[in-house]
Design goal:
Blueprint: E1 5-9, H1 20-37, E2 41-46, H2 49-53, H3 72-81, E3 85-90, H4 93-99, E4 106-108, H5 110-113, H6 116-125, E5 129-132, H7 138-146, E6 155-159, H8 173-182, E7 185-190, H9 196-204, E8 208-212, H10 232-244, H11 250-261
Parallel strand pairs: 1-2, 1-8, 2-3, 4-5, 5-6, 6-7, 7-8
Amino acid sequence: MEDAYIIAEVGSNCLKYRTLEKNLALSKEQIVSAKACGADAVKFQFFKYEELYGLSAPKDYDRKFELPYEMIPKLKEYCDHYRIDFLCSAFSTSGFKKLDEYVGMHKIASPEAKCPGIVAAVQALGNPIIISNGCLTFEEQYELVGSDAWGADDVMLECVSSYPASAWDYDFSKIMEIARTFNITWGISDHTTGHLAAYTARKCGATYFEKHVDLAAISAPSTPDTCVSADRYIFEEYCGRIREIKASDYDKSKKAASKLYGRDKSWYRPLPKNEI
């Protein structure tokens, strides 16, 4: 099993203030803390609210949660300085093109993964892609991963598009089937407030983990991501435990159970003699 790759999804939690200087200082704190907790990457989100909502955009939407483009080179600089990968989602083809020179991998969110035009445009940029599957049917996932455009370094994340989600909402059987069929790398976009879903995914063979975080030492005004974000203490434990967990060896477990119950070619326990 490969080493885990853990992404600290800061999202809107770097945009709590009205000034660029305060938000840059907050972003730097989030990056430093993510590195200290054991993350491999820090991820932000770059969008205009019209890209998310179109004509149905809420009239009271607060534009302070739109990441200014002028922050992106600085965020990249911070990440490079503290030796942690910089990632950033976009929500339009133009957004991905603007980010391309700053990221080593592109992250496509679940709704945008439903748009073939956006997916094709990002694939054409040439960087590896991480795609969340929360809005994709099994057939759409299968077609996407089985296409010639799917790269050897691309990653699919099992995603439940609820904020917050329950661990019981996650079902890894389908993505495990796809991973076995096409030998792809997979993981979880973790929208739960706990650890169970990620630990289960790790046991099943996941190697990529995306977790919403708010790692600022001092509380500040809430954001759209507050309800699902782990603090620095929870996230540090999250990173440590995931790296300790090993994948289950199901073949080995089956052989051990067969030997225990006296059958070489059956998973089922033999009936007692008085029941035969």
